[in-house]
Amino acid sequence: MNVPFIDLKTQFSLIKDQVQTNMDRVLDHGAYVMGPEIRELEKRLADFCGQKHALACSSGTDALVLALLALDLKPGDGVLTTPFTFFATAEAIAFIGAVPIFVDIDPRTFNIDPAKLTQTLAALKKREKNGPALPRSGGKSQLGHPVPKDPVPRAVISVDLFGLPCDYDQLEEIVRSENLKLIVDAAQSFGAEYKGRSTCAIGDLACTSFFPAKPLGCYGDGGMCFTSHTATHQLMESLRVHGQGRDRYENVRLGLNARMDTLQAAVLLAKMEVFPRELELRCKAAENYNRLFEGSDLAVPRIFPDRKSAWAQYSLLARDRDHRQAIFKELEKNNIPWAIYYPLPLHRQKAFTYLGYETGDFPVSEDFSERIFSLPMHPYLESHVQEKIVRTVLSA
């Protein structure tokens, strides 16, 4: 039995005609960059999320960079985020010269821990020697940006890891009380909800990715920013196209070439026809996995009654590294794919050694990186296939 980790072929078989129709329309009008499908997609996704503005861009990473620039983050400013996420979250911070300040995760959610966020903000004010780990001054990033002695916190980037929304009641209270900006990294949580609100309708800005493996993915790279602030949206429109002013040959600021290709917008418009149903199927698959693993010694992902996950991944925790390796051997024997998200927390990545963090600074993230693994997850995962996967895992 061939078990795909993500089944894009079945999805394509359902939307093939609509994809072809949409792409033919682009080929007919020839506006391959910023064609009419871009605006159509922006409006459709803004409406879907209950948000005022949406801005299509070239990738989820560029969405984060655009958000940071639009909020006027400067070199040396502190931006707090999780070390247990994909590299791009902190990379975008460092790329603009700001300082990534890591905060360990809540073991129940894999997301940034609000209590530890509060402790880290307090430590930044007092420079506590025995408090949470902070960046050590004196280092310089690969782009030459130094770590200041006392980085002033300006923003928080939350990450809805694996599609599960963060605890936004607590996060929003913290950022309000500390006068910080909140950027929601919804790269894995497009379609998710926190207490009835789309994750892309939370914070000053929200950013998502349309990488093919995401819950809503295109056939290449793509991303989108969401905001309720008209002035911020207008600024991002300029930043997206080389900082342009009234026309393409007036440049009023430094910007990026961060436009989404029109063909990718056409694909996403076709996929939106099945996306709401796919979210329901992802949820059912996750619930079925949890039922099948009930009583095992694996830690399964929690399902919260006030949150709707997009289930970008289905991730579990083994007892320890050896247990995980034994599981991988059984999965390989049965031709079942698996993945590790993420094997190395960001504070231990070579690119961030200049921040001066050490092993042991974020014990939950480090422990989980040794034990976590992800199983096949997609809307078209059949129950009998899940049963085989679970039997194989438990046989280890």
Compute the number of structural domains: 2
- Give the overall silhouette: globular
CATH topology of the largest domain: Aspartate Aminotransferase, domain 2
Strand order of the largest sheet: 1-9-8-5-4-2-3
Q: What separation lies between the terminal Cα atoms?
A: 19 Å
What is the compact description of this entry?
The chain is α/β, with parallel strands linked by helices. It folds into two domains: 8-271, Type I PLP-dependent aspartate aminotransferase-like (Major domain) (Aspartate Aminotransferase, domain 2); 275-394, Aspartate Aminotransferase, domain 1.
Report on the structure:
With 396 residues, the chain is of the alpha/beta class. It has 2 domains: 8-271, Aspartate Aminotransferase, domain 2, CATH 3.40.640; 275-394, Aspartate Aminotransferase, domain 1 (Alpha-Beta Complex), CATH 3.90.1150. Helix content is 39%, strand content 12%. The protein is built from 12 helices and 12 strands. The protein has helices at residues 8-29, 36-49, 60-70, 88-95, 114-126, 168-178, 230-240, 262-271, 275-293, 321-333, 363-371, 383-394, and strands at residues 53-57, 78-81, 99-102, 153-159, 181-185, 193-194, 197-198, 205-209, 223-227, 307-308, 314-317, 372-375. The strands form 3 sheets. Strands 1-9-8-5-4-2-3 form a 7-stranded mixed sheet, sandwiched between helices. It has a 3-stranded antiparallel sheet with strand order 7-6-10, with no helix packed on it. The mean pLDDT is 97.
Feature tags:
12 strands; three-stranded antiparallel beta sheet; alpha/beta; 396 residues; Aspartate Aminotransferase, domain 1
